[in-house]
Design goal:
single chain; alpha+beta; 3 strands
Length: 136
């Protein structure tokens, strides 16, 4: 018998806004990093001006193609991608907040792997987390 789909309640939608507890790649062996993240819309971030106009082209490419579309040897690619990925990560953290981590000097300690993990999580959600856990 086919299961009838139920409309998502407003209470469930409000709960979704709180984010999801996610285990990110560790800082180092034995130093796990678990945070509550949400998945902001890159399109809405661009619309609200949260991604500067000078980075819109790269943000759009990241939105459409992900990080795989960039040649790391291409001139200025890191300088153009990093600010976009960092701005997206800034809007992901619920707990601890980006501001709390910034005040305590943790932002500068985030690894490339953590930042790219966060970006992939924004693009692919928990589907990405499953493949990450299988590979570990």
């Amino acid at each position: 018998m086919a299961k009838t789909k139920q409309v998502t309640t407003i209470e469930e939608l409000i709960k979704y806004k709180e984010g999801t507890v996610v285990e990110l790649p560790p800082f180092a062996e034995g130093q796990p990093f678990v945070a509550r993240l949400k998945r902001p819309s890159i399109m809405q971030m661009m619309e609200k001006g949260q991604i500067p106009n000078s980075l819109i082209v790269r943000a759009n490419q990241l939105f459409l193609n992900g990080t795989e579309s960039f040649n790391p040897h291409q001139e200025n690619v890191i300088k153009e991608i990093f600010p976009v990925v960092k701005e997206i990560a800034k809007h992901c953290f619920v707990e601890p907040s980006w501001e709390e981590m910034e005040e305590n000097g943790i932002i500068s300690e985030l690894t490339d792997e953590q930042l790219l993990f966060i970006f992939s999580y924004v693009q692919q959600g928990t589907k990405y987390l499953e493949s990450f856990r299988t590979e570990s």
